[in-house]
Specification:
Layout (H helix, E strand, L loop, with lengths): L1 H21 L4 H8 L26 E4 L4 E4 L5 E3 L7 H9 L1 H4 L11 E3 L5 E3 L4 E3 L1 H15 L9 H10 L8 H24 L5 E10 L4 E11 L5 E10 L6 H14 L6 E6 L3 H13 L13 E3 L1 H13 L7 H10 L3 H13 L16 H11 L3 H10 L1 H6 L5 H24 L7 H18 L5 H18 L4 H8 L5 H13 L1 H31 L4 H11 L1 H12 L7 H11 L11 H7 L5 H10 L7 H13 L9 H15 L36
Parallel strand pairs: 7-10, 10-11
Antiparallel strand pairs: 1-2, 2-3, 4-5, 5-6, 7-8, 8-9
Helix pairs in contact: 1-2, 5-7, 5-28, 7-28, 8-9, 10-16, 10-18, 13-16, 16-17, 17-18, 17-19, 17-20, 20-21, 21-24, 21-26, 22-23, 27-28
């Protein structure tokens, strides 16, 4: 029975120990009551010591008992940490602590916005400034360049997108952005007018007319071509002007003259390149009477230049008129297989079956455009096996009796080979990024040689085509435009030797000698004219004449020398003629060498200063009006059916701002704002308010 007594006494000791601990008894008292030594538990902690912190939040907080606060280890923020505060608010803080939740790596700072007195807004420490006026300007330029509809500023999602990007930007309405575009065009035009007013070199002009199908209005595009002070070839759209009917010579002349006067170019024109039609011929004749003849090159003798691409088109068209029967079945076959999607899929499937790469789609030509006929034949000749295979498998195609025979394919191949020369030269003449004036003469001679080669063909149709083309060629190009022959001489690879060789081959020695002498005399006249201009410029320098006279009057030695020189006979020595002789006597650059002709005259022409100035003006002359016509390919989208109600002044502003951006001519003349632009072809319909005065035509 000893065990029960011992067990009953054990709890008594424990309870007394607890009671003694509660009353502050010392451990020695406990030992005296129990007779043994025991380790103090957590509940028996001495008064004044820290209580153990068991919550996990304390691993991320530092507690200050004196302040009854805890500091976050991440953001260093102090929070309440009293005995009754608990730890819930500390745990919630850790979930949203900005320092703890921030991404690792580069950290983004919050922008501090401050508004200036002028309304602009600063970001942070003046690192960036938001300007509402600049944002509106860029928005207007975006609409012009990418051909967005003006109503885009009223699209709900576009407004929301802009608001997301910059809440401080106040979106404008359609009428306001229209006014911004007109104001921006006016300001930029004023800047460019001043630029051309101070330009020291001549400018070549190209122009073309176009009828807007949806508006039924005529527009004239006027483009300036020149080489700037840094010897860079430039093309600049001057006007996209509405021209009222009738579009006769008088109206065209008046529109051109007003444009030249408006841009201060009436005394700086070298040539005007136009299409070959009677109204343009009359317009140039009347324009010559309006302009100041002494300011023109050789009194305007070579002012008018015909578009060689248009003349080339007339030459080939006359020859193609006799070719219709020979290529009829080829055209019918192409028309059959490109008529419906189902037929085209059969044609494409057959190409895969025969393992023929179908990289160029069948393309039906336009009968009035010979180059489209050439492209159609060139593509069709690649797929002869497909046409032949389908003629055996497809009954409908066989019933049409339009499958070409072997003779048809043979004739088409020969015709395509003959037309390739004309097509390649047309593409070459259509370039706007390089000089074409020096290429005119050798390529025109190549065309004449090709026509002569056609006359040796065994096919009577080819021979007849050659006769038709030869007649048209002799009508327009037997007498080569003088400035284009000069441009060939200014090519250091050709000089007079190119003229001599080509004229001898085409027309014989007598004609060649006569024509070469004519071009040489023309160059002498031009050099004397340019030399007189330079001499006049030197003589007009203020104070130079007076200073030299005063020096001669006070120096006895100079007086004696002057009297001696006056007594000597005058020797006629032409600096211009001597300069030309030196250039022609210099060895030609080999034909195998690729020459940047502008770069050559910029540096190599320093030895011939008058010739260099002349080359500066003549090499900028384009041989086609392609640069002006290219504006119409864009205007067809700008003035589409959905935007047919655009007023002429608005259409001109849109066209000019887009062209000036692409020409890298916005801002100052050395700016580089855009390298490449894309167009949006699908414009949304733009309604016009009748009460808006901007849109009414005055």
């Amino acid at each position: 029975m000893a065990s029960p007594e011992h067990n009953s006494s054990q709890p008594a000791v424990s309870s007394s120990a607890v009671a003694g601990g509660a009353h502050g008894d010392s451990p020695s008292a406990e030992a005296q009551g129990t007779g043994t030594e025991t380790e103090p538990s957590a509940a028996t902690t001495v008064r004044g010591t820290k209580r153990r912190l068991t919550s996990a939040v304390w691993d991320e907080f530092t507690k200050d008992d004196a302040k009854q606060q805890a500091q976050c280890m991440y953001c260093k923020k102090w929070l309440s940490a009293g005995s009754k505060a608990g730890t819930t608010h500390l745990s919630n803080h850790l979930k949203t602590c900005p320092a703890k939740c921030a991404p690792v790596g580069l950290k983004q700072q919050k922008l501090k916005l401050t508004e200036n007195v002028d309304g602009s807004v600063n970001f942070g420490n003046n690192d960036g400034v938001f300007e509402a006026a600049l944002a509106r300007k860029e928005l207007a330029l975006m609409i012009c360049v990418h051909e967005y509809p003006l109503s885009i500023v009223e699209h709900a999602l576009f407004r929301k997108f802009c608001q997301t990007l910059q809440p401080l930007f106040k979106m404008v309405c359609r009428n306001t952005i229209r006014k911004d575009i007109l104001d921006m065009h006016a300001a930029q035009k004023e800047l460019m007018v001043r630029y051309f007013a101070n330009l020291k070199y001549r400018v070549a002009i190209t122009s073309d007319m176009w009828i807007a199908g949806h508006q039924k209005k005529g527009y004239m595009v006027v483009t300036a071509h020149y080489i700037d002070e840094s010897w860079n070839l430039k093309s600049f759209l001057l006007r996209f002007a509405y021209v009222p009917c009738p579009h006769n010579g008088e109206v065209i002349c008046q529109a051109l003259y007003e444009c030249l006067v408006d841009w201060h170019l009436e005394g700086k024109v070298s040539t005007i390149t136009l299409d070959n039609c009677t109204s343009n011929d009359k317009a140039v004749d009347e324009l010559t009477d309006k302009l100041n003849l002494p300011s023109l090159m050789l009194n305007g003798k070579y002012l008018h230049m015909r578009c060689c691409a248009h003349v080339l088109n007339l030459i080939v068209k006359d020859g193609m008129n006799v070719m219709e029967k020979g290529i009829g079945r080829v055209r019918d076959s192409v028309a059959y297989w490109s008529a419906t999607p189902k037929r085209h899929e059969k044609f494409e499937k057959m190409a895969k079956t025969l393992n023929i790469k179908y990289s160029r789609r069948l393309n039906l030509d336009c009968k009035t455009r010979w180059n489209s006929t050439y492209i159609m034949l060139d593509i069709a000749l690649q797929y002869i096996p497909i046409f032949e295979k389908l003629s055996k498998r497809e009954k409908m195609f066989a019933k049409e009796n339009c499958c070409p025979t072997d003779e048809d394919w043979k004739f088409a191949r020969e015709l395509c080979d003959r037309l390739k020369v004309f097509f390649d030269i047309t593409v070459l003449f259509s370039g706007t990024k390089y000089v074409t004036a020096n290429l005119f003469f050798p390529k025109i001679c190549a065309i004449r040689l090709s026509i002569r080669k056609c006359s040796t063909s065994d096919d009577p149709l080819i021979q007849k085509m050659s006769e038709e083309m030869k007649t048209k060629f002799e009508k327009y190009w037997k007498d080569v435009h003088g400035l284009m022959a000069v441009a060939a001489v200014l090519d250091p690879r050709y000089k007079l030797h190119m003229l001599q060789a080509m004229f001898i081959s085409l027309y014989g020695y007598e004609y060649a000698n006569r024509e070469v002498e004519r071009i040489r005399t023309l160059m002498v006249d031009l050099l004397e004219e340019y030399g007189a201009v330079e001499d006049g410029g030197w003589a007009s320098k203020p104070g130079s004449t007076a200073a030299s006279t005063e020096t001669a009057g006070t120096d006895e030695a100079m007086q004696i020398f002057s009297a001696y020189m006056l007594s000597q006979p005058v020797v006629s020595a032409s600096r211009a003629r001597t300069e030309l002789d030196l250039y022609l006597e210099e060895a030609n650059i080999p034909l195998t060498t690729e020459v940047d002709i502008i770069g050559w005259w910029k540096f190599g022409g320093i030895k011939y200063p008058t010739l260099q100035r002349m080359a500066h003006d003549i090499l900028a002359i384009p041989v086609t009006i392609v640069a002006s016509e290219s504006a119409f390919s864009t205007s067809g989208r700008v003035l589409s059916a959905h935007r047919g109600s655009l007023a002429p002044n608005m259409a001109e502003a849109l066209m000019c701002m887009q062209a000036w951006s692409r020409a890298d001519m916005l801002g100052d003349c050395n700016s580089t704002l855009y390298a490449e632009f894309q167009s949006v072809l699908a414009d949304e319909e733009e309604e016009m308010d009748e009460d808006v005065t901007i849109l009414t035509e005055e």
